[in-house]
Amino acid sequence: MHRERFYTLTASCPDQVGIIAQVTGFIAEHQGWVLESSFHADDVDGRYFMRIEVKADSLPFMLAEFRTRFRPVAEALRMDWRIADSAVKKRVVVLVSKQEHCLYDLLARWQSKELDIEIPCVISNHDTFKGFVEWHGIPFHHVPVTPDNKAQAYAEVQRLFEEVRGDTMVLARYMQILSPALCAAYPGQILNIHHSFLPSFVGAKPYHQAYLRGVKLIGATCHYVTADLDQVPIVEQDVIRIDHPDSPEDMVRYGKDIEKTVLARGLRYHLEDRVLVHGNKTVVFR
Amino acid sequence: MHRERFYTLTASCPDQVGIIAQVTGFIAEHQGWVLESSFHADDVDGRYFMRIEVKADSLPFMLAEFRTRFRPVAEALRMDWRIADSAVKKRVVVLVSKQEHCLYDLLARWQSKELDIEIPCVISNHDTFKGFVEWHGIPFHHVPVTPDNKAQAYAEVQRLFEEVRGDTMVLARYMQILSPALCAAYPGQILNIHHSFLPSFVGAKPYHQAYLRGVKLIGATCHYVTADLDQVPIVEQDVIRIDHPDSPEDMVRYGKDIEKTVLARGLRYHLEDRVLVHGNKTVVFR
Amino acid sequence: MHRERFYTLTASCPDQVGIIAQVTGFIAEHQGWVLESSFHADDVDGRYFMRIEVKADSLPFMLAEFRTRFRPVAEALRMDWRIADSAVKKRVVVLVSKQEHCLYDLLARWQSKELDIEIPCVISNHDTFKGFVEWHGIPFHHVPVTPDNKAQAYAEVQRLFEEVRGDTMVLARYMQILSPALCAAYPGQILNIHHSFLPSFVGAKPYHQAYLRGVKLIGATCHYVTADLDQVPIVEQDVIRIDHPDSPEDMVRYGKDIEKTVLARGLRYHLEDRVLVHGNKTVVFR
Amino acid sequence: MHRERFYTLTASCPDQVGIIAQVTGFIAEHQGWVLESSFHADDVDGRYFMRIEVKADSLPFMLAEFRTRFRPVAEALRMDWRIADSAVKKRVVVLVSKQEHCLYDLLARWQSKELDIEIPCVISNHDTFKGFVEWHGIPFHHVPVTPDNKAQAYAEVQRLFEEVRGDTMVLARYMQILSPALCAAYPGQILNIHHSFLPSFVGAKPYHQAYLRGVKLIGATCHYVTADLDQVPIVEQDVIRIDHPDSPEDMVRYGKDIEKTVLARGLRYHLEDRVLVHGNKTVVFR
After folding, report:
1. Interface contact D27, partner A, CB < 8 A
2. Residue D172: how many CA atoms within 13 Å on its side-chain side?
3. Predicted ipTM?
4. Which of A127, A147, B193, C139 is the most exposed place for a label (fewest CB within 10 A)?
């Protein structure tokens, strides 16, 4: 992560000769100083992925002009592309239920500016963390979810997210399954932390399943939310060793430590525009 | 692992007050010097597990007498138990196909006496490693397996295993599925290395499945062979990080490094009588 | 960790025949139900270590009587020993400076009762976290440390620790070096998290040293505080992979994630009486 | 690793605007198809590093012509550069003493073409592995090293290396310290595996040192050999968890598993021209 203001270009396109040359040629033509660059060719699908950071003040124009001038290059290469500005903080809405570990962890990183983001609000189906969140000066919305009010509740979540102009929604152990409609509204914008090493233990109580199965490692998975948990694009995963004396409750406790770390890593990759979704997979330019 | 000769008592029994006291009291009564001891209570099932190493020359009797005298203690506690003698080398029959990594790894450990075992023979459905195995002075048996001769082939494997009085069969990337009859004949005696982090990717070509699923870590699992891969007792597992540039072939290559290590660790636990099977789970006293 | 009330006996003594038998015989004689037990013989030094959890209500007497009756057994074996009661919460005083990660992490664990302890106060040489700590209902003491007032400041820290009857002092990235006198006053009671994989990078700015040296992994070490950092008893360590693009600032950020996890693990082992100090080493019965 | 023949350009130069554009522009101009590319800017030193794989048959010329045409580009950028041809197998001379694990591991990888190299000979100060090496059809040279004949012995090693036109020398647990002259003759060409997590435990018997220090993880380091072990460029490192029951002998055994894996990974990076040395550090484009 660089200190100076920079623009991050991320793009994918059909692979062909000369992609890097055309894109970096365009940047060099304008005296753009490349801070970091990553490229990946998916041989199987013939698709090309890239991420380039350009120092903002090395360019003779502002972001809007950068986009305008780059458009013809991108169109010639049939690119999906975007350019982000490091000076514009991402607006991250956090959803939480009753478990504290991911919330405390995210707020610690936000408080110290390790995560240099705006958190315009926290939404929860419980009021457990109202005081804690508000003490940090962040608005807290209690949106209860019951079997009967789901449509209404998710509509309210969406309304709040739109109202605060959220970029990213983070499910920080939010123990409700979002509606397919809500998932579909924000593809590649909703990050969840699942408490198993996917594709293992997709169903309920994964640590209990892991205990019954007798595995020697348990894991956590940060992924973009889509309607089908079996096909979610995985952003980051990690595991921790367990042992025969460990009860399901011990596993829950161990699991918390990897859940919060994996979520934080995945979120950082996302916020720094390091993640490019490619079907049910991801390219992560770490 | 100790240098002096020792006896290893492993046992499990219903949990109750005073188990350790009775067992270690018996040992102390005969001036037995305990080198290492491990105990585990499974709270859920109310079952107790233990492993105790006693220095052989601290006892006033030999192994047969140890067993005779211990029997009443074990019966009073309704134990499943066994006592092994570190001076009696285990006889390990290795089964292999065409991949070299586990075989080279096991023979390196055997050659240097890191694994202090007998390898009375290697059996393979191919003759790829005949010269290599025989160079080490180990008999090699080529037992081809075809769709038509399976019953006959596994009968031959079993005959060879019996003939050399094998204790343990190790499937060192043996790419055939043993018959249910053979599995049933040697419960807790056949170790396999599966090239995925079970329960993920149970079927064929697990690395290819992992590639298609877009996971960020791949794994290997050492387990006792039973008829149902979904319920095998897992002895050891580990994982390795992969990344978006890695092809299925790269994963196969990375996977080899954890396969051989996980198999070697699991085999060592087994040979040192550190593994107690408990239904579809294991207690591993490392 | 068990739910029922239990007593934890930890002890070490010269190794000899029959130690386990005598100790567990004593427990069994009183119908004590052993929940968990661990034993270790240090062959080199001829010293024996143990930790036994006994269910409180299985015994016909209370803790004081347990101690009285056990004393002769312990004396005959020339033991260093103690018995802790799981119903008595440990009193942990946290010292912190200006970095948030360990403090947030510890308070999250305390808030959810994952760490079932009392935090009678937090002490800091800065007032950065006064509001945050007090919001949690925990007294906060600002004890500035300057080159001129060190003796006085540490005397105040000690006075506060005594006043609240602290059991354990945790230096949660407290960026001051305690006086030798304070270290000597509480051997085995002060836990620190050092931001390197000891014995590497003992001096100042370890991440910067790691950057200059070009290592491929960085680490953190939880240890008991003694006057000499080169000889501290290490309780827990872990590492995380870094890469050539990572600046010293990136390493500081990665390091935070292992520092807080390693500190929390080490603290838990300590609080559950799983750590026995043995010279400059530890036995940790996980 | 790609199947088709390709050229690998590795280079470093002072950082400036337009480096990628110039280099990839040159490649694109000749219709070069880029398979893989990696770039890194060292902000502190202002130096730029790159590695680019170009499909051989996409270019209208052969390697010699590629070099000739690229030279002016490289000179304008004041580059240190080289271009390797994937069709030319590297010639790796292995040096070994009496420990088997790295040798077996390397020969297994060579035998299966996982490492697609020539091993023109193995050199050892003992004759332990003569038969094993020769069985593989590889010449074996026994060059004893005594306190008195060191200069002569290393001259012989150098003569053999030159005679077989070696590219890379691998010290696969070769328990002799090469002379400064030999180190200086082949900078960036001699890889060693050191059995500790450098910079810890630089001296003799690192596992024994680790035991005495009471660390909770032990490690291994693959590095380029230079005269000063404190400043060697580190290529790869890894660690493994140990525990209080582990003796120094157990650590030696655990250590073997990471030594061989870390050496094999480091060697692969080196052979695929993924390692660029930068003072006492390395850039490794994995």
Report:
1. yes
2. 28
3. 0.94
4. A147
Element containing residue B179 per DSSP (H, E): none
The residue of chain B nearest to residue D263, with distances taken between CA atoms, is B257
Token code pair at residue D12: 């470093």
Using DSSP bridges, classify how beta strands B234-241 and B217-224 pair: parallel, antiparallel or unpaired: antiparallel
Cα D228–Cα D229–Cα D235 angle in degrees, nearest 5: 120
Is pTM beyond 0.90? Reply is yes
Angle at C158 between CA C155 and CA C159, to 5 degrees: 85
How many CA atoms lie less than 13 Å away from D161 in the CB half-sphere? 23
Kindly report, residue by residue over B9-43, the tens digit of the pLDDT. 999 999 999 999 999 999 999 999 999 999 999 98
CA distance C105 to chain A (A): 7
Flag whether pLDDT at C2 surpasses 90.
no
Helix, strand, coil % over all residues of chain D, rounded to 5: 35, 30, 35
Hey, what are C131's tokens? 């509001």
pLDDT given at position C196: 94
Put simply, whether C32 touches B (Cβ < 8 Å) is: yes
Q: What is the structure's pLDDT at B140?
A: 98
| Three-state secondary structure call for residue B23 | helix
List A95's β-bridge partners, or say none.
A123, A171
Q: Does B36 touch chain C (CB under 8 A)?
A: yes
SS (HEC) of D209-238: HHHHHCCCEEEEEEEECCCCHHHCCEEEEE
List residues of D with catalytic annotation. 230
Peptide bond into C144 cis (omega under 30): no
Residues facing C9 on adjacent strands:
C52, C83
Amino acid identity of D192? N
CA distance C235 to C266: 6
Report the residue of C47, C196, C244 to disrupt the D interface, i.e. the one with the largest count of D CBs within 10 Å: C244
SS3 C21: helix
- The catalytic position among C43, C57, C148, C230 is C230
What whole-number distance in Å separates Cα of residue A140 and Cα of residue A146? 19
Which of C43, C47, C217 to mutate against chain D (most D CBs within 10 Å)?
C217
Residue A150 identity: K
C-alpha B48/C-alpha D20 separation (Å) is 65
User: Chain C contact for B14, CB < 8 A?
Assistant: no
**Cβ distance B128 to B98 under 8 Å?**
yes
Closest-CA residue to A41 (of D58, D16, B197):
D58
Edge-to-edge strands of the sheet including B234-241? B140-142, B122-124, B92-96, B168-171, B190-194, B217-224, B234-241
Rounded distance between C-alpha atoms, residue C171 and residue D241, angstroms: 25
CA distances, C145 to each of B95, B252, C149, C179, C181 (Å): 67, 57, 6, 12, 16
Site of tokens 């450098």:
D198
Q: Contact, B162 vs B120, CB < 8 A?
A: no
Q: What domains appear along chain A, each with residue ranges and CATH number?
A: 6-85 (3.30.70.260), 92-284 (3.40.50.170)
- Give CA–CA dist B140/B261, Å, rounded: 23
Structure tokens at D216: 């909770």
Is the bond into C199 cis (omega within 30 degrees of 0)? yes
Give the residues across from A283 on adjacent strands: A276
Taking residues A248-254, what's their average pLDDT? 95
Query: CB distance from D58 to chain A under 8 Å?
Result: yes
Q: Is residue B49 classed as helix, strand or coil in its secondary structure?
A: strand
Q: β-strands B190-194, B234-241: how paired?
A: unpaired
